[in-house]
Structures are given as C-alpha cells and as structure tokens.
Amino acid sequence: MTTPLHFNAFVMNTNSHIHHGQWRRPDAGQVDFNDVRLWIDLAKRLEAAKFDALFFADVTGVYGDADADFDVYIREGLQIPSNDPIPLVAALAVHTEKIGLALTSNVAQSHPYQFARQVSTLDHISNGRIAWNIVTGLQDNGARNFGFPRLTDHTERYAWAEEYVDVTYKLWEGSWDEGALLKDRESGVFGDSSKIHKINHESERYSVQGPHLPSPSPQRTPVLYQAGSSASGRDFAARNAEAVFLISPSPELARQQIEATRSRAVEFGRRGEDIKFFQGLSFVIGDTEEEARAKAEEYEKYISIEGYLAHSALVDSDGRVYDPQTPLKDVDTNTAKGFGEWVSKAITDREPIVADIAVLISRSTRLVGTPEQIADALEIWQAAGVDGINVINWVIPGSFEEFADKVLPVLRARGLAQSEYGDGPTLRDRLFGEARVNDRHPAAKYRGAFAAVEVGA
Ligand SMILES: Cc1cc2nc3c(=O)[nH]c(=O)nc-3n(C[C@H](O)[C@H](O)[C@H](O)COP(=O)(O)O)c2cc1C
C-alpha cells in the first residue's frame, strides 16, 4: 500500500527567504509580509489543501561577515527586514483549526524557561499544533546580537542545544503530573500542588528552579524538528528530532543521510521510524513539459545572483560578496568551499565563474515538469526514504496555490497525498498517531521524574 507523503509549506516572515530576486515579480505577495492578512490568508488556503504544516524559518541577525557592511542584504530584502514568527504563529492559530504551525527558534535567542513557556502557551492556543525547529545559528552577527563575541564553535553549539532541550523537556514533561489541574469550583481548589514540581535544573549555562508556569498543553513537548547535517548535527537529530529537514541535492544522497541518522537513532535506543525526513523542494509546474520549461526560464530572469551569493556567504576575506563575473579559480573563501567544488564538476566546457554557483543553487532542489512528471519524481524521493516535502516557494501565495491545484490532485490519485487530515487533534497525532513524545524519546524520561522531590525542596 502506498503511504501518503507529508507536505509542509516552507516560508519565512520576510521578503526574500530562499529564492532571491523573485520578490520583484508582479505576483510576489511576500513583499507585504508585514501584513498579517497575507499569512492568515495563506494558512487558510494551505489548510483547505490539507498541507500538514506551515513552517517558519528564522534568523537572529544578518548573514556574511559581522564586520562587513550589509547593504546587499538590505537592497535585496534578504531576511532583513524580518519579523519574529512566534507572535505571528499565535495569530495563525486562531484563524485555523487543523494545520500544524512550525516555528524556528535558536538556543541563543531566548532563555529556555521563557521559551518553554511561550511554546506551551502557543500549544494551548493552537490546541496542540506547534512544532519547534531547533537551530543553533549560522551567523556571527546573530551571535553578537545576543552578547556573544562570535558564533559559538560548532561542536559546542550542539552541546549547548542538548543542555537547552534538557531544560525544556523537564519543564514540559516532568514539572506537572497528569491530573494536576483540578479547576474544582465546589472545593475551591484550582490546582493540586502535590502533582506540580520544581525541576531544580543545574547545568553549565542554566539554572532553573521551576515549576513550569503553564499547565500541560495538548502535546506538552512540541513536535521537534532539526536540520543539522554534520556529524554532531546528525547525532543531535538522532537523539532529539522527530522530523529532520533535508536539502539534499539528490535522492541517493538523501538516502545516505536518512539511513545514517536512523541507524544512529537506534544506537540511542530509538527506532528508525521515530524520525520523519522532509526534503526541501521547489516546483515549476506546467500543463506540458514545454510550458514548464518556459516558466522555469521566466523564473530565472528574476534570479538575483548577488542574493544567492550573499545568502550562501560566498564572500571574500573582507566579508564582501564576490563580483558575479569572478572566475572561480580566483575565489578564496573560508565559508563556502563545497559550492566551488560542486560547480567545477558541473561546468567543464568553460571557465566557471561565481555567478554559476548562484544559478546552480537556484536549480539544485527544483523540479520542473507536468504534475505527472513531478509525481513520478516524488515517488523516487519517497523510495529513497523521504517521508515528506517542504515546499519552497518562489512567490507567496502563488507557488503553494499552484502546487495545491495542479500537483496534489495527481498525488492523491496515486495515494501519495492525504485527502483529509488524519485522526486526533494534535500535529503529533497526525504524524505519529499519538499526542505525546513516545517513550523512547529523551524527553519521556522526565515523566514523573520529579514526583519524589518534595515541594519546596
Ligand atoms: C532546510 C534547512 C532549513 C534551515 N533553517 C534554518 C533556520 O531557519 N534558521 C537557522 O538558523 N538555521 C537553519 N538551518 C541551518 C541548520 O540549523 C544547521 O545549522 C545547518 O544545516 C548546518 O548543519 P550542521 O551544523 O550540522 O553542519 C537550516 C538548514 C536546512 C538544511
């Protein structure tokens, strides 16, 4: 039997998120991202199309060298200006009923006590539809905005994330026992203090006494997303993630990453199927192949070479984005060496230039074709182990509308997309068949763990 794929709409509360330059198109609604009505309208459309979730990426500063100027980012509207997804998700929660709402939050940007409280509040407001994309940052500027001299060392960032999630797991899973909230008007007892516990957490960075202020929300722990690809990132995912976000250049490479992460998860006492993998893809859809190709060419006219280079931090030693015409052999960058090697392999009939990198990035996870051809390609991704797709947009809302109107019906006919939301009120119910993290997840060990600790101890 065919299993339906899951579909998320991948967005950011900004003008230019992934496909830089497209905001100049006349149908690009994302220029009005400050207007909450854009997002409410999008969330409703996605829910009508039975998308699993609306997924918000986020950053804590600008890309590139923290000491360089940032005029490229401003000119392009490239993730600046950008708004915080958390209050936006609250607004979307009250205008929708079923769709999951995923937000990104960096461990450096807020204290875990405060963050855990915000998430519990959102999970209450949405009746259990919140997911958290756990990130550790990619920007020196993003670190400096929170009082750190630079981005913390890579391995250390993941150690920090482990410490951070540990605090939140204790608050979400351990601080309140089941049945602690009584709301008993007769007896005049609102909560049962014998079932509510301080967590007395002490670690290198955090000291948190507790108890958690909110009462348990439908999911308690939100659905946990993560996107690390390095060895330490993968270990973190194998231990903690319930969904992993990939931008793999091919199904075969996705398969390798999925298998490696799943077998690592088993070493940590979890099961391979405890983690779902979402590949990021963008789509150019035509009624015929020719129409799709023509549309792809039209999108390419709007591509901002400089935008892609700036986003991928292809900058010189002074932190400046390279001139697009620079021969690749003259590039000396610390930041994006992998891209150079990739382009040199792809372009062999002439001298590759910096602009080639941008074009290749824009095409790397793009599927161009008829709805049938796209469905065929998605079957290949699914066969590689992918459970879902994060649909990356060119324009909002058009890219999602087109996908919903043209591709989803074909996928449904093949059993590859859901026609209705699954049972259960929460996002986790619909992904995993239960509202709470399963017993193999590290958060689960805190259930009841503080019950023996005397109140006030
Ligand atoms: C599809 C995808 C989406 C991501 N979204 C964000 C994001 O919204 N904010 C962020 O700070 N980092 C984001 N990242 C970066 C990851 O959190 C992570 O730092 C990056 O993949 C490098 O992984 P590594 O640290 O294991 O090498 C994203 C990465 C991928 C692949």
TrEMBL record:
Record's keyword terms, sorted: Flavoprotein, FMN, Monooxygenase, Oxidoreductase
Tree of life domain: Bacteria
Parts forming coiled coils: none
EC assignment: 1.14.-.-
Residues of the Luciferase-like domain: 23-387
Keyword Transmembrane in annotation: no
A molecular function GO annotation: monooxygenase activity
InterPro entries reported in the protein's UniProt record: Diverse_substr_monoxygenases, Luciferase-like_dom, Luciferase-like_sf, NTA_MOA
Ranges that cross the membrane: none
Keyword Oxidoreductase: yes
Enzyme class of the recorded protein, top EC level: oxidoreductase
Pfam families on file: Bac_luciferase
Sequence similarity: Belongs to the NtaA/SnaA/DszA monooxygenase family.
Stated name of the protein: NtaA/DmoA family FMN-dependent monooxygenase
Species of origin: Leifsonia stereocauli
Lineage of the organism: Bacteria, Bacillati, Actinomycetota, Actinomycetes, Micrococcales
